[in-house]
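Training component of the fellowship. As part of building independent skills, the fellow (R.M.) carried out the full modelling exercise for a liganded target. The chosen ligand was iron/sulfur cluster. The inputs are recorded below so that the supervisory panel can assess the work.
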Amino acid sequence: MQLHLVVNTFGADLQRRYGEKIYKLTLHGGFSCPNRDGTLGRGGCTFCNVASIIDESIQVKSISDQLTSQAAQMKKSKRYLAYFQAYTSTYAEVEILKNMYEQALASADIVGLCVGTRPDCVPDEALALLADYQAQGYEVWLELGLQTANDRTLHAINRGHTYADYYQTAQKARKLGIKVCAHLIVGLPKESKPDNLITLNKVLDCGIDGLKLHPLHVVEGSIMAKAWRAGRLKVLSLDEYVDIAGEMIRNTPKEILYHRVSANARKPTLLAPDWCENHWLSMNAIDHNLRQFGVQGSALGDSYCFTDSPYLTNIFAK
Ligand code: SF4
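Fellow's submitted model of the complex:
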């Protein structure tokens, strides 16, 4: 599988710009979430159990210990992005954020930060901090969990924010030169392909630098797990997911970077769909779909084309 030939992937873009592979190291900054601590709600989004996407035990380690232990396991890379992934990684006083982010940036192998958060939880002070790191030459990405632009669905899944919150934060961040990556979930209850394409278009209209697509996972410990066990929640088949993701990618302008086109969940937390246990199943199927029906941007009449320069060929042959 060579997804970078049919999709403008973040990994290939980093490799092109830095001249080597850059991997993301996943950090737990010990942040909480306003949708769990009672500020906005308790119980969280109906699909969420953070333990399904990150090992909660790593938060007892310092930021530098987390980076060092993960970097030691990487064989193909020597430089990294520090990815604050767990919970809401801008949900703290700005001095605490500064301390966390700068612990990560202090490592010689770190080229920048990816900060995952909710769109309604990014104060101006946090944006100013990130803009400052960007101005210092670091790679900086604000990863906003939107999931869908449909406010009715956002309410039904208990997100506690609206599309307008996302719009406002994404606009502010981009005006400061911070790159924004939106996280979108495919397969949310009562949504189908047209809804996903509407969400994609709204995000594109707002202005975006990167996208992450995830199939809806039902995970143990989430509110959705109950509905799924009671037979009240249907999940997508692999074919359905690939069909929708492929169409979204074809409708995405070629310059937008895909940070992810699918995702898996950690065992034993994943309940459904079964195919999400194996990351490569959906990746290979999406690759095949794009080769068969058209690559990124093809539905817009401006297809992504991987530059065939000897420089790039040499890098990717390694
Ligand atoms: S998905 Fe994010 S915002 Fe929602 S409950 Fe989980 S950590 Fe909080």
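The panel noted the following from the submitted structure. The longest strand covers residues 139-147. Residues 33, 35-36, 44-45, 48, 50, 87-88, 118, 145 surround iron/sulfur cluster (CB under 6 Å).
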